[in-house]
Each structure stands twice: as structure tokens, then as C-alpha cells.
Write a structure and sequence with these properties.
About 45% of the residues lie in helices and about 20% in strands. The chain has 13 helices and 21 strands.
Length: about 550
């Protein structure tokens, strides 16, 4: 029988390394960017649907307004003054239709035919003697009369630019929410006035004279008066309205889709001789007309339905909202990734700091315990070799006892530090004199010079405070100038300990970390736990230890009131 060894794979533990915030952030930013991109796509789709609905609603609302105007015109006596008012209303609706849509329309009412063409009008509404509203409306004879206005200051006041911007952004939900009336350089309707004109009352036409534009708190008067105004009477429109005048309206309208014409019409609304109104696709309408099914129509409205293209149209009609969706998605992804990264980084950093702390602590303890152990081994070997010499035996035995005592002191410090780190210490408070505690500590250091001033009584734990003061003064004795006294000042708020030293520490607070000594070599006396134990004890008591090192002066301040 053949037997073989089975190999088992032991899973290798992942090494703990110091976390890098940049790496953590970019990974999470890409994740959150993907998440918020999906949200942005959804928001974009909803915006696209909303804008498409708005475009269609506006288109068919204007068709309804034109239809109502046609019906009013059809039902009015062509020889009456009111007919001219109704005709003017229809022309204005046609101008508005072409201005607010990238489309085209034409209307027939009997022998009358109107199309969406560049136009301009001046309308004044007043009350007649019977109280009825009467409109006096005049249409421009030739759009070229506006050349001085459109070319003024390199086209600064060109209405075509204003209309183009308005049509591009007027359906933007954010634009509307902000309550903006315009997005161009100026608001044409609010800032442009016709001061003088030349009117032909019979033809209901006019020639522009002086146009006043208000821009950036400055007023400009532009003279559009042509050289020949024969057949027209001059009209001056003052800032003060005429008696009975209700409103004025001066408008300049341009085709937003000049390339469109009759051949581009896609739908037709019409009224048959029985007064029934219907709407059909152009092909269906022409088929019924050619077959003789539709004839003697009262009126028709032929119009082009602009194609709404996804997603190009939403960018054209709602650039503000599109930009907001993109920017909001990016900022949200950035903010979410930043918060997530900070939490993750702090968590990993804490784990790494604990790991690093444990590693350095273990190395430091091993180093400090190894030194006396090596000495003990050496003395033990010497003791074995010199067993017949009593003086050598006594010397080596004494040295062994000293090293064992040193190790015992180290282990005691380590245990004290461990207890102070956990904070699981029973605190027994009593009223005591700080000066008395300090004098007890000084009695254990007979060779150190000290000058104690002041005293205060506080209610605290004697054992913890005594151990902290012992360690602070022991530190002064070990690293301070032997010839200079240690100055100790006590009051109800602080204990201030000042001693001279031949060293200056850039980061004195780092001495409160465990196993950090005030000497470059670790061969000096002490475990490097004294200040760490003192700091932990004082923290447990609710006090604060502050260390300051400057120009050969070392200060330790115990603050009772934080």
C-alpha cells in the first residue's frame, strides 16, 4: 500500500500596513461616482420627459389660441373696425407662435392667408366712449428698418440674440424656479420702448423712429428713422400715457426656424362648413381633400411639429438643469466618498496605530528585559567559575540581585502602565495636601535639590497622584542638571515643575508615549514608562499633564482644572 503526505495550505495573515488616505478616497469616489451616475441618469430621464411635455403643451396651447383668434376673426364683419382688431390679434398670435417654437405655421381664413414671418408691431389698447377695449395695432412695413438697432454696439441690443437665448432656456425648470425673466444681455420687453414712429392708419403699418433701450442703468436712444417717410404721419409716444390708455406693447418677432416653409407642415387643423373642428396628419388631410371628402373649409391651420430628439433637445431647452444634475451628482459623489473615506481611514488608522503601538511596546519590553537577563547570565557563569573565591561569589551574587531588582522594577512599571492604560482602577478620594505628597516623593530622592513653594488642598486619590508625582520628580532627578535645584510651585489650579537640562526636545509631548526616553541611547536608567504612567494616572483623575521644553528648560505642568 502506498501512502503519501497530505499538504495543507495555511492561510497567510494579511499584514497590517499604514493606511493611505488618497488610495482609500479614490476607490470610494469611483464607487460613489458610479452610484450617483445612475441617479443622474434617472434625473436626466425625468427632466427629459418633463421638458418634452412642456414643449408639446406650449405648442398645442398656442395652436388653440390661434384657433380661437381665427374663430373671432371669421365671425366678425370684414368691413367693420373690429375686424382689423381681430386680424391684428391673429397676426400677433402668429408672431408669438414662431418666436416661442422652432416651428412654422400658416393660416387660411377664406381668401386670407397668413404665415409665420419676421414681424414687428406696436399696439396700444384703450377704452372707447362705451367702455369697450379698443386696440390700435400697426405692423412694420419692412424689417430692414431695424438695422440701426440690430447693429448698434456690435449687436448688443439685437432682439434676435435675446429671443434665441430665451427660446433655448425658457423651458428650463431651474431657470423658471429662479424667476428669471430673461437670460441675455438685457430684457427686450422690459428695456425697449418706441418713442417715435411714422404711422399709416389706412394700411395699419408703421416705420420705427427713435427707440430707447435701458441697459446697465444707462439709457440709449437709437434713431431708426429712414430717409423717406412719405405717406406716414409722425407719432410721438410720451412717457405719460394718454387718457384712457390701458396698455402698450411693442414687439419685434423673428422666425426661429427660417428654413421651414409650407412643404414642412406635418399637421393640419381645420373647420368644415358644419362648424366641426378637426386635426389630422398632413398626409391624411391631403388624402381627404384630394378625394373630395373635405371641401369648402371655413379655415385651416397648418403647422410643423418639431421633432424632439433625445437627449439633444433637453440640452438645448434645459441647459441649467442639466448642468445642475451633473454638478450635483459630482459633488454628492465627492461628499459621500469623502465622508466614507474619513470614517474608513480613521478606522484603519486606529487599527494600524494599535498594531504599531503593540509592536513597538513588545520590542521595547524585550530590549529592556534582555539587557539585565544577559547580565544575570554572565554573572551566573562567572559565579560558577569562581565558586572557590568567596569575595567573587559575593560580588556576583550582589550584581545578580541588583539586576533581578531592576527587572522586578521594570515588570512593576509595565503592570502599572497596563492598569493605567485600561483605566480600570478604583479611585478612593480624600482631602490631602499637595505639598505633603511632594515632600514624601522628595524624601526618596535625597541627592536632588528642590525648592518647593506654595500648597493647596484637593480631594483626590492619594495613590494615583503620589505615583504621578514620584515619576515626574524621578524624571527630573534622572535627566536634570544636578547642580541646579528643581523649582516646584503649587497653587489650587496647577503644579509647576521646572528644571534645567542639557537637552531640548522639539516635541516634548512625545515623551508621554510609553518606552520613550529622554536620552538618545536606551542604555540609560529607567523603563521609559514613568511619564506615560504619570499622564495616564492624571487623566484618570481628570487632570492634564503638559510638557514644555525650550532652551534648556524643561517644564511639567499638572493642571487640575481643564
Amino acid at each position: 500500500m502506498i501512502t503519501g503526505k497530505t499538504k495543507s495550505k495555511t492561510k497567510r495573515k494579511t499584514s497590517i500596513v499604514e493606511p493611505k488616505f488618497g488610495k482609500i478616497f479614490w476607490v470610494r469616489f469611483l464607487i460613489m461616482l458610479a452610484v450617483f451616475s445612475l441617479v443622474a441618469v434617472y434625473a436626466w430621464k425625468k427632466l427629459d420627459d418633463h421638458v418634452e411635455e412642456m414643449v408639446n403643451v406650449e405648442l398645442y396651447t398656442l395652436i388653440d389660441d390661434i384657433e380661437l383668434s381665427i374663430k373671432d376673426l371669421y365671425n366678425t364683419d370684414p368691413d367693420s373696425d373690429e375686424y382689423q382688431e381681430k386680424l391684428a390679434d391673429l397676426k400677433i398670435w402668429m408672431a408669438v407662435f414662431q418666436n416661442l417654437n422652432y416651428t412654422y405655421a400658416e393660416v387660411t381664413v377664406g381668401d386670407l392667408k397668413l404665415t409665420t414671418e419676421d414681424a414687428s408691431f406696436y399696439s396700444s389698447t384703450r377704452k372707447d366712449d362705451s367702455g369697450r377695449s379698443v386696440s390700435d395695432t400697426y405692423f412694420i412695413e419692412d424689417m430692414s428698418y431695424y438695422e440701426p438697432l440690430t447693429s448698434y454696439k456690435d449687436g448688443l441690443f439685437d432682439p434676435r440674440v435675446e429671443w434665441e437665448l430665451y427660446n433655448s432656456w425658457a423651458r428650463d425648470p431651474l431657470f423658471r424656479e429662479m424667476g428669471l425673466s430673461h437670460v441675455g444681455k438685457y430684457d427686450f420687453f422690459e428695456s425697449t420702448e418706441l418713442l417715435t414712429a411714422y404711422i399709416n392708419r389706412e394700411k395699419h403699418t408703421f416705420i420705427p423712429g427713435i427707440i430707447r433701450v435701458t441697459y446697465m442703468d444707462e439709457t440709449y436712444e437709437i434713431d431708426c428713422t429712414p430717409a423717406d417717410t412719405k405717406g406716414y404721419e409722425k407719432a410721438v409716444f410720451s412717457d405719460d400715457w394718454e387718457p384712457g390708455e390701458v396698455s402698450r406693447w411693442f414687439g419685434i418677432s423673428y422666425k426661429n426656424a427660417p428654413e421651414l416653409s409650407s412643404k414642412n407642415i406635418t399637421a393640419v387643423c381645420f373647420c368644415d362648413p358644419d362648424g366641426i373642428t378637426s386635426c389630422l396628419d398632413r398626409s391624411e388631410f391631403e388624402e381627404k381633400v384630394n378625394s373630395g371628402e373635405l371641401k369648402n373649409l371655413t379655415w385651416t391651420i397648418g403647422y410643423y411639429i418639431p421633432e424632439y430628439k433625445h437627449p439633444d433637445s433637453v440640452l438645448r431647452y434645459a441647459p441649467f438643469s442639466c448642468a445642475l444634475i451633473v454638478i450635483a451628482s459630482l459633488l454628492s459623489a465627492l461628499a459621500a466618498a469623502l465622508v466614507w473615506s474619513i470614517v474608513k481611514y480613521q478606522k484603519e488608522k486606529t487599527v494600524w496605530e494599535i498594531f504599531e503601538y503593540r509592536t513597538k511596546t513588545t520590542e521595547a519590553m524585550a530590549h529592556d528585559l534582555k539587557t539585565p537577563l544577559a547580565a544575570i547570565m554572565a554573572y551566573a557563569e562567572n559565579l560558577e567559575a569562581s565558586s572557590e573565591d568567596p569575595s567573587k561569589v559575593r560580588e556576583y551574587s550582589k550584581n545578580i540581585n541588583e539586576k533581578v531588582s531592576t527587572m522586578d522594577h521594570m515588570i512593576g512599571d509595565i503592570l502599572s502602565f497596563s492598569r493605567s492604560e485600561t483605566g480600570k482602577i478604583d479611585i478612593v478620594k480624600e482631602e490631602l495636601s499637595i505639598a505633603e505628597i511632594i515632600n514624601e516623593s522628595l524624601s526618596a530622592l535625597p541627592e536632588m535639590k528642590a525648592d518647593l513653594k506654595g500648597d493647596a488642598k484637593i480631594e483626590t486619590d492619594r495613590k494615583l497622584l503620589k505615583q504621578a508625582i514620584d515619576n515626574l520628580l524621578s524624571n527630573c532627578d534622572r535627566y536634570g542638571d544636578k547642580e541646579s535645584p528643581v523649582d516646584i510651585t503649587v497653587d489650587s489650579e496647577n503644579i509647576l515643575i521646572i528644571n534645567k537640562t542639557d537637552k531640548t526636545y522639539d516635541d516634548a509631548d512625545s515623551l508621554k508615549k510609553p518606552f520613550v526616553k529622554g536620552e538618545d541611547s536606551r542604555g540609560g536608567k529607567g523603563t521609559g514608562l514613568g511619564l506615560a504612567i504619570a499622564d495616564n494616572n492624571l487623566n484618570i483623575l481628570g487632570y492634564k499633564l503638559e510638557l514644555i521644553s525650550e532652551k534648556g528648560i524643561f517644564k511639567a505642568i499638572v493642571k487640575f482644572k481643564i
